[in-house]
Amino acid sequence: MKFFTTPLRTKFAITNFLLAVSFLFVNNVFGQASVTTDLLDYPPGSTAIITGTGFQPGEYVELHVHHAVGDSLGTDPQYHQPWFVTADSLGNFTTSWYVPSVAEGDALGATLLLQAHGDMGSVAEWTFTDSDFTGTWTSVTPSTTCAGATASYTLIANNPTSTGTNANVPVGKKVVITFPAGFTLSGFTSGTLNGTAISSGTITTTAITVSFDNPVAFNKNTTVTIVLNGIVNNSTAANYQLSMTIDNNTGTGVGFQNLFPASANSQFTINALPSAPTSVTATAATICNGGSTTLTLVGGTAGTSSTTQWFSGSCGTGTSVGTGTNSITVSPTT
């Protein structure tokens, strides 16, 4: 009977080959590390959701975000410190990074580099941007109305010039126009945005806000013209400045909006209504030809920027004898 044996060297070679194949397989499954963000472009004050895949199971991963150009830490190094996560059994993880607001740092307009380094050798990186989602006002007309008046307001603004496309606004996104404290809104009947009618079914009002669904798509860096019909104000006399938010195509809610902060170009004025005087006094009750007397209104209010028209005979249908504020001096000629 013959016996065949495998030499030890051959067994060792086969074992090493199988181990190499196995290691190659593991690297193919877990070794193609990558990190991505849920968006390519973010407004200031929003949160980037970060996903990692292809890391080693249980790998301890250091992440940090810094400026891709110039000073890597910028003027806000506290937002560019590293943090750590652990990959799950499949080599995946999810984490997040807060994009500092304009007041908090200098990320606005920057290209940002996300880097991930694992303690088992995995390395990955990703770039994204923090664009400016702030629009500007051009005008609000009419610039002056009276308290209690009904008016149609035309608002003209310029959509942000974001470096990304996220400032574009699709149909159906929410537009919210906010009047400042002190302004009391009690009516809004209809309107248009860039000439397209606003659906009445989407209109919502409060004492200081008007909101509706955008009826027509418009892109970044374009003029936005909004007409609000039937705005009734029950406001105190003052200067008011509008602000506005428009949801953009990244989502809804804070951090996914084009912002139009109040400014001098969004200002309008509410004037107080005049009230009729109760009587008139004269410095001289009887005067002769060539003399004069000063007439002064008693009671009532002239209102803001109003002018008093004086008549002889009957008010409005008599002969005009001049204009003034609350008094006038007259000199009869006959």
The run of helices and strands is HEEEEEEEEEEEEEEEEEEEEEEEEEE
Count, helices: 1
* Strand numbers in spatial order across the main sheet: 2-8-7-4-5
Number of DSSP strands? Answer: 26
Instruction: Report Rg.
Output: 36 Å
Morphology: elongated
Average predicted local confidence, pLDDT: 83
Strand percentage: 35-45%
Q: Strand pairing plus helix content: what structural class?
A: mainly beta
Largest sheet: 5 strands, mixed
Percentage of residues assigned to helices: under 10%
Kindly report how far apart the N and C termini lie: 158 Å
Poorly predicted sequence stretches spanning 5 or more consecutive residues:
1-30
Q: What can you see in these coordinates?
A:
This protein has one helix and 26 strands. It is mainly beta and 334 residues long. The strands form seven sheets. Strands 2-8-7-4-5 form a five-stranded mixed beta sheet, with no helix packed on it. Strands 9-11-17-13-14 form a five-stranded antiparallel beta sheet, with no helix packed on it. A five-stranded antiparallel beta sheet has the order 15-16-12-19-20, with no helix packed on it. A hairpin with a 3-residue loop joins β15 and β16. The longest helix is centred in the N-terminal third of the chain and has 23 residues. It is elongated. 25% of the residues are buried.
